[in-house]
């Protein structure tokens, strides 16, 4: 066998520009085209064309959780202020020096039961915010809807009866509703739990 024989299987590779590459030798694949064999896989998804569920809490949902904690803290401050004012109004209702004070009489027109009712309502609303803040990590879509309803009612309550002190509540509640209601929030609350 001579080395120049074109049919020699042990000879050097032969081939030029117009010929196919020799069998058994490494080949360069053109860029941009998939290789031989199996076709390219489609992107990984959760099935039915939906994107995969998030594995970590999105930043907007985490921010909503922090805002729920802030609302809880503000509710505790409100409970303390309402309790102090209810106790002081109860103690001062019979004081003769305050009978002529118009500002105190306007506050004293509220019954002490109503003031203590505001204390109880503020406490319950704060506990509700606390429960929602705790459940953000494990809750489902029902908790998402509950959080949005809570935030909307908090925003409305911050506007009407408590306009000056409720402004912070209103802003926080609107942000919570937006952050929980957006697509990242929906993906987080609707993710599968195993």
TrEMBL record:
Keywords: Membrane, Transmembrane, Transmembrane helix. The keyword Transmembrane applies. The keyword NADP does not apply. SUPFAM superfamilies: beta-sandwich domain of Sec23/24 (SSF81995). Signal peptide: none annotated. The chain crosses the membrane at residues 66-89, 114-133, 145-164, 170-189. Residues 19-38 have a biased composition (Low complexity). Residues 1-38 are annotated as: Disordered. This is Integral membrane protein. It comes from Streptomyces hyderabadensis.
């Amino acid at each position: 066998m001579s080395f120049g024989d074109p049919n020699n299987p042990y000879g050097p590779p032969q081939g030029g520009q117009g010929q196919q590459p020799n069998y058994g030798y490494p080949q360069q694949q053109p860029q941009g085209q998939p290789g031989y064999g199996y076709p390219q896989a489609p992107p990984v998804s959760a099935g039915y064309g939906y994107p995969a569920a998030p594995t970590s809490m999105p930043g907007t949902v985490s921010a909503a959780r922090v805002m729920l904690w802030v609302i809880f803290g503000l509710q505790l401050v409100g409970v303390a202020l309402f309790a102090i004012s209810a106790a002081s109004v109860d103690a001062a209702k019979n004081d003769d020096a305050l009978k002529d004070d118009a500002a105190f009489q306007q506050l004293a027109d509220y019954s002490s039961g109503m003031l203590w009712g505001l204390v109880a309502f503020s406490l319950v609303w704060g506990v509700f915010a606390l429960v929602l803040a705790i459940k953000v990590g494990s809750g489902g879509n029902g908790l998402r809807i509950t959080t949005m309803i809570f935030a909307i009612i908090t925003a409305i309550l911050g506007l009407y009866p408590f306009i000056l002190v409720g402004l912070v509540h209103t802003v926080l509640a609107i942000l919570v509703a937006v952050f929980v209601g957006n697509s990242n929030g929906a993906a987080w609350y609707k993710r599968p739990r195993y």
